[in-house]
Automatic annotation (TrEMBL):
Family the UniProt entry places it in: Belongs to the LDH/MDH superfamily. MDH type 1 family.
Catalytic activity: (S)-malate + NAD(+) = oxaloacetate + NADH + H(+)
Highest classification ranks of the organism: Eukaryota, Viridiplantae, Streptophyta, Embryophyta, Tracheophyta
Top-level EC class: oxidoreductase
Oligomeric and partner information: Homodimer.
Record keywords: NAD, Oxidoreductase, Tricarboxylic acid cycle
Protein EC: 1.1.1.37
Sequence ranges assigned to domain Lactate/malate dehydrogenase N-terminal in this UniProt record: 28-170
Full protein name: malate dehydrogenase
Length: 338
């Protein structure tokens, strides 16, 4: 199949077999919002992933150009573009994993919650499509405010009768990526050698880095703990302000989303021991959704890992996080049921 539009005079192509490298099964992945600031670099990174055999790029604008561009990369994944609401179902049918970075980004002075009115409706429409066309797909939800959009997606899937909490994963990987970077800077080591669990949610005080559980085990002064916690919680705002009206994190987010998607695909292929932080339906606290480490498997989040021992600073942070999270979750649930 031609990646996108038939060129006049082009010969019929031979059927494309599964093109994943190394004999491993390839997965079909769709990106909804593929022409955006995150969507474009994420499309490129997934075209480079040997576990992706088919890559569907959907947006309400500009997908023909992005698709033509990415499809010329000489890697295995077959790329197809889909433009506008009438092509949503075709974009989603048969997909194993759907990544959703569709929606407005912040400008300076805005909170993520200020995006709710626009993005809630976008996420609802797209998740209705997932329920209709690929109800068994694993969903990686990026659109903000994540603390509310994941509950919105869950309600949409419940209404459609397709909800499986293991398959709905809010992407908080960028918080972990930032935490690893900033902690490595303070420790003077390579960020690749550092792993910081970040729990709670994905906005301000709901982003709770557990510096007492950093690996390799490390100790920090009180001053370092305050500096690191504040920088990790406000990493998104740091980028929004630096971009000065031109949007929020896109490149580091595409990197984080590609990392998280790759972890999901490796787990779906049967690789064991894959643990990532994600915002998901959870019983770790009294809240219905919470980000913690989860063990990924063939069916999504197979196991939600406990919070582990917290120090006093983290316990205070947890209470503040839960208060704000609770409101954001209720707002999302109410949006679908009003
Ligand atoms: P962007 O404006 O550059 O791109 C968004 C894309 O979504 C656009 O191409 C737009 O056409 C598309 N879109 C809008 N409505 C759509 C619909 N109904 N169906 C399909 N596509 C639609 O924004 P961006 O910088 O790529 O950010 C996207 C979202 O990701 C924002 O909500 C942002 O806040 C969020 N974000 C989340 C994280 C995270 O850590 N979870 C990090 C960064 C950004
Ligand atoms: C981020 O953390 O970079 C994203 O949530 C985008 C934002 O608005 O900060």
């Amino acid at each position: 199949q031609r990646p996108q539009m038939e060129e006049e005079g082009a010969p019929a192509l031979r059927p494309a077999a599964c093109r994943a490298k190394g004999g491993a099964p390839g997965f079909k992945v769709a990106i909804l919002g593929a022409a955006g600031g995150i969507g474009q670099p994420l499309s490129m990174l997934l075209k480079m992933n040997p576990l992706v055999s088919v890559l569907h790029l959907y947006d309400v604008v500009n997908t023909p150009g992005v698709t033509a561009d990415v499809s010329h990369m000489d890697t295995g994944a077959v790329v197809r573009g889909f433009l506008g609401a009438q092509q949503l179902d075709a974009a989603l049918t048969g997909m194993d994993l759907v990544i959703i970075p569709a929606g407005l980004p912040r400008k300076p002075g805005m909170t993520r919650d200020d995006l709710f009115n626009k993005n809630a409706a976008i996420v609802r429409i797209l998740c209705e499509g997932v329920a209709r066309c690929c109800p068994d797909a694993i969903v990686n939800l990026i659109s903000n405010p994540v603390n509310s959009t994941v509950p919105i997606a869950a309600e949409v899937f419940k209404k459609a009768g397709t909800y499986n909490p293991k398959r709905l994963l809010g992407v908080t990987t960028l918080d972990v990526v930032r935490a690893n970077t900033f902690v490595a800077e303070v420790l003077g080591v390579n960020p690749r050698d550092v792993s910081v669990p970040v729990v709670g949610g994905h906005a301000g005080v709901t982003i709770l880095p557990l510096l007492s559980q950093v690996t390799p085990p490390s100790s920090f002064t009180q001053e370092e703990i305050k500096y690191l916690t504040n920088r990790i919680q406000n990493g998104g705002t740091e980028v929004v302000e630096a971009k000065a009206g031109a949007g929020s994190a896109t490149l580091s987010m595409a990197f984080a989303a590609a990392k998280f998607c790759d972890a999901c695909l490796r787990a779906m292929r049967g690789e064991g021991g894959i643990v990532e932080c994600s915002y998901i339906a959870s019983q770790v606290t009294e809240l219905p959704f919470f980000a913690t480490k989860v063990r990924l498997g063939r069916g999504g989040a197979e196991e939600i890992l406990p919070l582990g021992p917290l120090n006093e600073f983290e316990r205070v942070g947890l209470e503040a996080a839960k208060k704000e999270l609770s409101e954001s979750i209720q707002k999302g649930i109410a949006f679908v049921n009003k």
